[in-house]
Write a structure and sequence with these properties.
Rossmann fold; 7-stranded parallel beta sheet; 11 helices; 44% helix; globular; NAD(P)-bd_dom; protein-containing complex binding; NAD(P)-binding domain-containing protein; ComplexI_NDUFA9_subunit
Length: 300
């Protein structure tokens, strides 16, 4: 099976490529934006890096040639002067859809986020909802997977978690009382590959989360205990964090904004976990954390 991937140098992309190589029967055309990004990809005869602009429908259609499925991973949480929610999350998805039509693509897999909604007052969640709408209305069979915080080696979530747990004193936004459903990045990659292989008919939206609910505060404490690090936790009031973010993001034309703070401090709510429906056996959180810490030890 041949698949095409956008945003292949992201943590999800890197993991997906590694799982595809392990599969043995999967080849991947890995779309990235630069030579530097291409150089960061795993090296394998099964992986063909391609530099592509997400604004160029013809280039996107070219990387899809001969592929059974396109996996669209590209997108941003933090805006900059040159990359906004509209351009990176919505317009790029629209280009992928147009390219999919041109290439006669059989299935689109879009990785989205819990809480995505076109009616959301949060700019990020609204843009992800708009991206979902573009895919759902494309007329191409599609699978949309909404994800929570992703944990595993190489993920931003794991880096932040371990970095926080390693401190002597850590101040958490709002006290870290938001409830999370951390998903092992390996489980997401396996779900993506499963969809590419089965290519369900029609368009479906799945909320795929981890097996355990836990507050971020409790998660930090748990990791600190695993590291045998005595940790004192304090609180940064959300109103102070949002005020500071509003000022700095306006001055810089991007960066951490009040919308970003709302996303990372909101509880992850799911109506029905899609693990059984997608044929995925979820990795226990304890095993995910052990993997992260083992990898961290090897790095040091």
């Amino acid at each position: 099976m041949r698949i095409a991937v956008t945003g292949a140098n992201s943590s999800v992309g890197q993991n997906l490529l590694a799982r595809a190589v392990e599969n043995g029967d999967v080849t991947v055309v890995a779309g990235v934006r630069s030579e530097r990004a291409a150089a960061s990809l795993p090296r394998s005869p099964q992986i063909a890096p391609r530099i592509v602009s997400y604004n160029d429908v013809d280039e996107l259609a070219e990387i899809m040639e001969g592929a059974a499925c396109i996996v669209h991973l590209a997108g941003i949480l933090i805006q900059s002067r040159t990359s906004t929610y509209e351009s990176a999350n919505v317009a790029a998805t629209a280009s992928v859809v147009e390219a999919s039509k041109k290439a006669g693509m059989g299935h689109i897999v879009l990785i989205s986020v819990l809480g995505a909604n076109t009616d959301s007052s949060n700019g990020f969640l609204k843009s992800k909802g708009e991206a979902e709408r573009v895919v759902a209305e494309s007329g191409i069979p599609s699978t949309i997977i909404r994800t929570p915080i992703l944990l595993g080696p190489g993920t931003a979530g794991a880096a932040s978690l371990v970095g926080t747990a390693a401190r002597v004193k850590a101040k958490l936004l709002g006290g870290g009382h938001q409830v999370l459903r951390p998903l092992d990045i390996d489980d997401l990659s396996l779900a993506i590959l499963q969809v590419c292989q089965t290519q369900p008919v029609g368009t479906s939206v799945h909320e795929l989360v981890g097996p355990e609910s836990i507050t971020y505060r409790a998660l930090v404490v748990r990791v600190a205990e695993m590291m045998k690090n005595p940790l004192t936790i304090g609180t940064i009031p959300l109103w102070i964090a949002k005020l500071a973010a509003a000022v700095t993001s306006r001055l810089k034309g991007g960066g951490i904004s009040p919308d970003v703070i709302d996303v990372i401090t909101s509880s992850e709510v799911v109506q029905k976990n899609a693990d059984a429906e997608m044929g995925i056996s979820l990795t226990p959180l304890s095993r995910t954390l052990e993997t992260i810490l083992t990898e961290k030890k090897h790095e040091t």
